[in-house]
Design goal:
Layout: H1 9-39, H2 46-71, H3 76-84, H4 88-106, H5 113-125, H6 128-138
Helix pairs in contact: 1-2, 1-4, 1-5, 1-6, 2-3, 2-4, 4-5
Amino acid sequence: MNSGFWSCKHTWKRSANNTKWCLIGCAIGDFGTIAFFQFSAFSVGTLTVFLWAMLNGIITSIALETYMLIRQKIQALQAFKTAAGMSLISMISMEIAMNLTDYYLTGGAIFVWWVVLISLFFGFITPWPYNYWRLKVLGKACH
């Protein structure tokens, strides 16, 4: 790679938009799951909550992407295949970053509004360079 590889503003902007939509989808499932376990009578360990939160975050991210692609007039099956084919590396790294931030700041899987904001920040910046690279080198994006 040449020295200007990481300096393409167009690719940074497009990869930021892709990362944003992935983050929104992941956050809905992730934080929703954490809040469910915090405010319900279910009592499970922190690791179990985080694993469920990660799984649900990935599912809601794929669902949101599918919806967004259908709105762009892509057939439902093709939209789902495209959304499901998004990079799991990106989604998993995003989920891990958000949950580690939550754990570091609260000591558990606890839904607190100011922690959500910090978790979203780290959830965004963690996969963003990878999404840039993937778009620049492979030409792959979710929309």
